[in-house]
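dumping this here before i forget
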Amino acid sequence: MGKDLDMQKGFWEYIRAYMNNGPWFDEHGNHSESDTFIKEQLASNLRPSDFLTHERQLILEKKAALGRENHLTPTDYISLAGDLYLHPTHLIQDFVYDTAKRRARNRWPEIVLERLRPDGPTTRLIDLERERGLDV
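structure:
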């Protein structure tokens, strides 16, 4: 990619924004102009700090479905214990990710902002590297 640090950071932010915001595909993997399917998938995606709550909800649903006192399997115990043990770590992970997302928006290099314009970029990345006098 880029030869200097600023250009590498810019490319990384461009790739990160691309991965977080698009492209859009339908349930069959075909390109779609609509982000409906992606939003459905993201809505069902749990943050790490939600794992414990989700596991408890699954256990309660299992208890209601089976209608008996002893409804937990060894796997349920292990999953619940693991989620309980890792919950503080997951809270920290969510905090760090949210902070990084919030801070990154205000620090994008101009090259990234130009590439994220609604009407598309006006230059090619290869041209920018050549303009800076970098070997490609």
